[in-house]
Hints:
Layout: E1 2-6, H1 14-29, E2 34-40, H2 43-47, H3 60-69, E3 74-79, H4 82-85, H5 89-98, E4 103-108, H6 122-131, E5 135-138, E6 143-144, E7 147-148, H7 151-159, H8 163-170, E8 175-181, H9 186-189, E9 195-199, E10 210-218, E11 221-230, E12 242-247, E13 258-268, H10 276-293
Amino acid sequence: MAVIATGFFDGVHLGHRQVIESLVRLARERETESTVVTFWPHPRSVLQQDADRLRLLTTLEEKRELCLGLGVDSFQVLQFSREFSLMSAEEFVKGCLVDQLGVSTLILGYDHRLGHDSFDSPEQMMEVVASCGVEPVRVAEFSMDEAAVSSTRIRNCLLEGDVKGAKAMLGYRYGLHGVVVAGNRIGRTIGFPTANIQLYEPLKLVPGNGVYAVTVEVLGERYKGVCNIGTRPTVGLGGGRTIEVHILNFDSDIYGLDLKMRFVTRMRDEIRFDSLDALKEQLRLDCQLAEKIIVW
């Protein structure tokens, strides 16, 4: 009989990790399998609850890799639909967890919700779980700076450009993953060629506008880089928001290739320069600073 934890786990942040580590530890003690059960797509996108503002910290594949990296034996995905959203906690536990996955113990986070029910207290929810023949185990809240770590709090940090604050709550550097697409090539004419990134997951949250020190993975190698997120006010000609990165000590053609980028720190605002020479000088300083502050 499996030990299971359920939830959307967006970001797999330190609060989630406390739940998952309890899951793995208990499963090993009982010599049984540990399973994370998550949902896809996000409930808000299905139920159309502010879906236009929904942004994700992790893609489904990133979430899978993070959970398995924490020692989870099995990662299961349930299709979230309107019909699924109407299930009661009892129907979910019995129908999905007991009958389909053979759960014996359910690990619950401090603010966990099950099914369509509105419980008056966590204890009431745990009573329903127990009534289904499943042992409930509740994990305490994980706090930082006297506030609970949450996916919403991390999203707010990233939107403000505070990638260091996000890292403190995630436990790892936040990243973006996409394909390199053609840009206007102005960067190459001033000695700072950039790779323009198109994300694979359109709902992935992009940090606030600014210039960041980043690490870059491309062609199987890792490099230091400087990333600009914004509208490129000096050379953008009124264009839309872009994600572009100058990779330090690198000069290969990577159009159409896969690129992963992780944020180290925000170095400055995105600003408009009076000339390309002024922009070039600032980029030189940005690269010097990135070279100095990025450590593996």
